[in-house]
Amino acid sequence: MPLVTAHLPGVGGALKSRPADFVVEELPLYLPSGSGEHVYLSIVREGATTKEIESALGRLFALPSRAIGTAGMKDKQARTTQTFSLHLHEGEPLELARRVEGELGLRVLSSARHANKLRMGHLLGNRFRVLLRDAHPEALTRAQAITDELSAHGLPNAFGPQRFGADGDNAERARALFAQPKRGWTAELLLSAWQSAQFHAWLAQRHALGKLPGLLEGDVAKRHDGPIFDVLDLALEEPRLRAREIVPTGPLFGESMRWAKGAALQIEESVLRESGIDAQALARARLPGTRRAAWIYPRGFELEAEAQGLWVGFELPKGSYATVVLREFTKSDALSAD
């Protein structure tokens, strides 16, 4: 996708030189109530994947993976504050937290009980604070201009490079799964990369038409508080679009995905046709499909210059990628996929 701030000079800088340069904090959808069968632990971790922390917690408390919940996956090369839920009927939360700190060497910020397991998507978004090392000498001034532009206009809700694997070939590797479907975590990872690649193809077509973040009749739009709906009257919906109450959504193709209508449907059908995968292949792979907001508006920008470089802070809704925003600042596609 073209940069929305391509007309502004970038700040350069190196991303993720070390985990402490990339700080992520989950913004919870709700706080634990203080009672229930699940223990919520807010954990600070570095240099480990979400799956690795889940496995370590499972071994420590003799829990199967299904008894451990998280709201989202986080990068390995980051300092992340992330909440995990443990289905433990017994034990005081503070004592369980001490075991995690003492035996796993992880820092626990809070521990409390709650009635339900933490599930994917149970968060409002994420707060990022990222150091761009060795940025341009005029980085602060340049970054302020970029911040103003992104605050005013937003940007496409593209996927970050980590979605496509270390070698960037996960989407292509997924093609074999449509001919010979397989299940399991690896298969799901590859298929999600294929969906993401087609979403990017859809974004490119809409951008070429000048319809991002604009609406087409027949679009499936999304309200900021979650529900999606069909756009039947452009004159009625465009003021809501300008007010940032709604955004168009794009396809993450699957057999049960909600399709657009009219002119918007033609673009979606074109993208799927050009991918070489048809509806029968989607059904064979048992790929459910869903829709994704096409446009995002980062909030809460903060900039701080220091000797090592430039700190950039901002908030994003859940499922959005910080690397997509940071690309606007660095003007470089060479961002880590770890």
Top keywords for this entry?
Pseudouridine synthase; nine-stranded mixed beta sheet; four-stranded antiparallel beta sheet; 338 residues; 2 domains; 15 strands
Report on the structure:
- It is a single chain.
- This protein is an alpha+beta fold.
- It is built from ten helices and 15 strands.
- It has two domains: 14-126 and 298-330, TruD, catalytic domain (Pseudouridine synthase); 160-296, Pseudouridine synthase (2-Layer Sandwich).
- Helix 6 (185-208) crosses helix 8 (262-275).
- The mean pLDDT is 94.
CATH class of the largest domain: Alpha Beta
Output the CATH homologous superfamily of the largest domain.
Answer: TruD, catalytic domain
Structural domains: how many: 2
Percent range of helical residues: 25-40%
Radius of gyration: 21 Å
Shape: globular
Strand content: 25-35%
- The CATH topology annotation of the largest domain reads as Pseudouridine synthase
Q: Which CATH-level-2 architecture of the largest domain?
A: 2-Layer Sandwich
The average pLDDT score comes to: 94
Number of strands: 15
User: What is the CA–CA distance across the termini?
Assistant: 21 Å
Could you give a short account of the major beta sheet? 9 strands, mixed
Flag low-confidence runs.
Answer: none
Give the ordered list of helices and strands: EEEHEEHEEHEHHHEEHEHHEEEEH
Broad structural category:
alpha+beta
Number of helices: 10
What's the gist of this structure?
By secondary structure, the protein is of the alpha+beta class. It has 2 domains: 146 residues, Pseudouridine synthase (2-Layer Sandwich), CATH 3.30.2350.20; 137 residues, TruD, catalytic domain (Pseudouridine synthase), CATH 3.30.2350.
